[in-house]
Specification:
The chain is of the alpha+beta class and 209 residues long. It folds into 2 domains: 54 residues; 143 residues, Nuclear Transport Factor 2, Chain: A. 53% of the residues lie in helices and 24% in strands. It is built from 5 helices and 7 strands, in the order αααααβββββββ. The strands form 2 sheets. Strands 3, 4, 5, 6 and 7 form a 5-stranded antiparallel β-sheet that branches. Strands 1-2 form a two-stranded antiparallel sheet. The longest helix is centred in the N-terminal third of the chain and has 53 residues. The mean pLDDT is 79.
């Protein structure tokens, strides 16, 4: 009896093995077919993407850019900023008395825009009066040049550089040589959409006789 049960057990194990083997043969090709189908679908999507990308011609790219900057006429913006900055810097570096400074301060500030550039320029050109005597920080402007970097469509940032060439005031009364030219640079990023300037970097460049 025991031998018979043992044989039945062996047969059952063999049948289970055969069943698993059959299922493997049936399901494995199906998995392969599913994988192949997914690969084909992905390849089709890639091909479709390439076709659409190739259709994005230079003209259509221009349309995309124009849509992004529909609020902006960059030439007008740069011309307006250049005019305002040039006039404000010219007035700021040419004032000689405290009264003149006070009378022009509001107009200078309005042309410079927001706080960062205003505070930096006015801080570098303020005229102080001590015991009735005016002490300007500039003996007059030689030249001012406003230039712009490449406009970033995504961040809406326009880099700005203002190069100022002016006649510095020499504090040392015993100096035998006159410095006729000192160059400084104001550098900052201007947000065109919001009309805001960022932090200003002030750099002293060179002084010449």
């Amino acid at each position: 009896m025991g031998e018979k049960i043992k044989k039945i057990g062996i047969i059952a194990v063999i049948l289970l093995d055969l069943l698993f083997l059959y299922l493997s043969f049936v399901s494995y090709p199906k998995q392969i077919r599913n994988s192949e189908q997914k690969i084909s679908e992905n390849q089709a999507k890639i091909s479709d993407y390439k076709v659409k990308t190739n259709k994005l011609t230079y003209k259509s790219y221009q349309k995309v850019i124009r849509k992004k900057v529909s609020y902006l006429n960059l030439d007008n913006t740069e011309n307006t900023l250049r005019k305002n900055y040039t006039e404000a810097i010219t007035d700021a570096y040419n004032v000689k008395t405290e009264d003149e400074y006070n009378s022009k301060e509001k107009d200078i500030a309005s042309k410079l825009g927001t706080d960062h550039l205003i505070s930096t320029v006015l801080g570098k050109t303020i005229v102080q009066k001590i015991k009735g005597k005016d002490y300007p920080q500039s003996n007059g402007l030689n030249n001012v040049n406003v230039s712009f970097g490449k406009y970033n469509v995504d961040t809406q940032i326009l880099p700005v550089n203002i190069l100022v060439d002016y006649k510095p005031v020499v504090d040392d009364s015993s100096a035998t040589e006159t410095v006729n030219s000192k160059k400084v640079m104001y550098t900052f990023n201007y947000n065109v959409k919001d009309n805001l300037d960022g932090d200003v970097t002030f750099t002293e460049l060179v002084s010449t006789k």
